[in-house]
Design brief:
Length: 294
Amino acid sequence: YLEFDLTQNRLELQKGGLLEPLPCACGSAMEEVIQHFLERYVHPEDRERIRAFAAREHLLTEYFRGTRLDKPEYRHIRSNGRISWVRLSIQMLPDPYSSNIRASLLLRDVDQQKQEELNLKVQLRTDALTGALNRGAFVEAMSSLLSASSGGLHALVMVDVDRFKQINDHFGHGYGDRILLRTCDALRSALRADDLGGRLGGDEFVLLLKNVSSREALQAKINSLCVQLFHKVAAELTFSCSFGAALFPGDGVSFDELYSKADIALYAAKEAGRNCARIYEESMGLQMELMDMN
């Protein structure tokens, strides 16, 4: 809790357990106190936002406008180095004994509530088994990345576990889950920081590989993943994956367009004997149309 006289630009009172007493070197002017508060207690990524909110000129302006202030939350650095979420609220009132304006900065620990909110958000966006993005979160993230793209090739890659039903039937669903986890871990380890990975459901995974240098480079990448994922699980049963890819912007500019083309390429990989990778070509679509006609 910090109380300031905004008019006189000075600290009047400090109390509470979230803040230690101000060091002697720190003056009582609001700007100096807030600067110390920001540097000592506020996470670097939150500082500019909190600085703008708690600036004296900003508070005076909002007071005379009669604006109802927000209650921003920030990551608070405690004396032991632990970080917890804190909500900052500011109440401004005229001093009853003068015309000065007083501002009370109230700090409230909301870490437990915030962690529950963050955990819920993660649960809503991720697949429960693998921790990968679920379909909705992947489509949202991919659409955002593609809309912000300023050029270059990006690849949507579908990954399907070959003969997954046989593996489940032969070894049980627990072993099948381990296969899915192994697949997801291998795919995740192959991604760069700005790539995306998700599980659409069942044994179907999807990747967005950003800024692919060429079609040939993409083919080499997914061929390599095929090799990494292949292994025998029984004398007559192997574990492998098939890959189908489509390129942005040539094959489409939205998730639905690229997914449709990547699905056609995946079908071509399955038709070629599984455990291989194919990138969409127009001829693949024509072949599927002919098969549907027959």
